[in-house]
Description:
alpha+beta; 4-stranded antiparallel beta sheet; 8 strands; 35% helix
Amino acid sequence: MRTGISGSRSFDFRAATPAARARTQCNAFAGRHGFTLIEMMVTVAVIAIMAAIAMPNYIENFTRAKIVEATSNLSDMRVRLEQYFADNRTYPTTCAAYAAGTPPAGTIYLPATAKYFAVTCTLTATTYTITATGNSSQGMASFTYTIDQANNRRTTSLPSGWSGAGSSSTCWVIRRNGSC
């Protein structure tokens, strides 16, 4: 509002501008602060639904990442055993825990890094079976994978809810649905 020369009030045309109208509308909400309980409950419900969808996928991906340790250690052991056989025309007689330096004659070291799976081996002069068994303290209980001298890869056990393990298995199962 403007005041004229005589002190009377005149109409302010600037109040009709969009900015002035927006200021007037903002003033209507000036007493309102924060969110309503319904708005908060809807937000919490949406977050809970998203978490319920994402968590199982996250957990399965984390488990599959741990399985990589078993499959890579089994493959590494197979390569080292075949190299030993190529050099000596027989497989070693003993698998021993990793130690620095060259292994003693007739011995092959197990993988040095085994956090999620314990690796063991059964050896004869012409055959071997290497087994990776999941550590229950690391959340990998019931996972067991094997490989032999003919490169037969088997999943001998899996936790409940997973499929593909057993004597008919011909691969290392890495997914809950039994795929390799």
